[in-house]
Design brief:
It is a single chain. This protein has a domain at 55-238: Alpha-Beta Plaits (2-Layer Sandwich). Helices cover 36% and strands 14% of the residues. It has helices at 2-8, 25-28, 38-49, 69-86, 112-125, 171-195, 217-224, 232-239, 248-251; strands spanning 55-63, 94-99, 103-111, 130-138, 148-152. Helix 5 packs across helix 8 (232-239). It is globular. One of its GO terms (molecular function) is blue light photoreceptor activity. This is BLUF domain-containing protein. It comes from Anopheles arabiensis (Mosquito). It holds the Pfam family TEX47.
Length: 279
């Protein structure tokens, strides 16, 4: 009796799988009638990540007037608090913010609207002497942090400076790649520290264990001098605000049913009469 009841009960509606996880060959292979666009791949990535919002990750560096790391932290905290109080987007800012002695290495991730609004606010705050946006990663599959994590360090001046060969044709790309590897390693280490349940107290200061993965002053100054990278104000002016795109159907009422030109029956002095039925 129980078996018949179970068999007759309706199955719960399952969530759709992305096309590359489907079992059937017809669903896996694109066809002329069902062509996939970039938007479909974006939706697949968000479905795999278990979220509905389009997330973005940005890494930028900055040089500040000579102040302590804790003073910089307080200034950024005040700026972000004011941003969160007036923003209309409910998704907060996440990521890792490291303030060195006069320098900043920040990795922030959130919804695209939140990141754009933050960079516009940051550009208007005049906190930097110089800044560069090193990485822009759109549609990230997974966030590295679930909150905004701060770390302060005072060992930057003690690090051995990297010798950069200015004659190397691959110096720019090699330096950027090495810098991003260090940033991601720092994020991984701090994330593991944050998730460690054995330690209830999380230090705000980076210790000597992080020195090996910290970019030194020579690398930071080289990145700050690259004209091929956007500054924070430049990036904010170009991409800091999502465009308000309105289509033809949004501007015309009533909505047209076909694309027949409104002047199709009007003839001018030099138009040819194809009907041969009149003058």
């Amino acid at each position: 009796m129980s078996n018949s009841t179970a068999s007759n009960s309706p199955n719960k509606k399952k969530k759709p799988l992305p096309y590359f996880m489907e079992r059937t060959e017809e669903a896996a292979l694109p066809s002329f009638q069902n062509r996939r666009t970039l938007a479909d791949h974006v939706k697949d990535n968000m479905l795999c990540a278990g979220r509905k919002s389009y997330f973005q990750r940005i890494v930028y560096v900055g040089r500040h007037p000579k102040v302590t790391g804790m003073t910089l932290r307080d200034r950024f905290l005040k700026l972000i608090k004011e941003l969160q109080e007036c923003t209309v987007c409910e998704i907060k800012l996440f990521g890792l913010m490291i303030n060195f002695d006069g320098y900043t290495v920040h990795m922030v991730e959130s919804a695209e609207e939140t990141v754009g609004e933050y960079l516009r606010t940051l550009a208007a705050a005049d906190l930097f002497e110089e800044s560069r946006v090193v990485l822009v990663y759109n549609n990230i599959n997974q966030r590295l942090f679930r909150k905004l994590v701060w770390r302060v360090s005072d060992y930057l001046n003690e690090l051995k400076r990297t010798e950069l060969d200015q004659r190397d044709p691959n110096l720019t790309q090699g330096t950027i790649n090495a810098f991003l590897v260090q940033v991601y390693q720092l994020c991984k280490m701090v994330r593991e520290e944050e998730l460690d349940e054995r330690s209830a107290f999380k230090s705000l200061y980076l210790d000597e264990n992080y020195e090996e993965h910290t970019p030194d002053i020579a690398v930071l100054e080289y990145l700050l001098g690259l004209k091929c990278l956007f500054t924070v104000p430049e990036y904010a002016s170009f991409y800091g605000r999502l465009p308000d795109v309105s289509s033809f159907r949004d501007r015309v009422w009533p909505i047209p049913k076909d694309l027949t030109p409104y002047d199709v029956f009007e003839t001018g002095k030099y138009d040819v009469n194809l009907t041969f039925g009149g003058k």
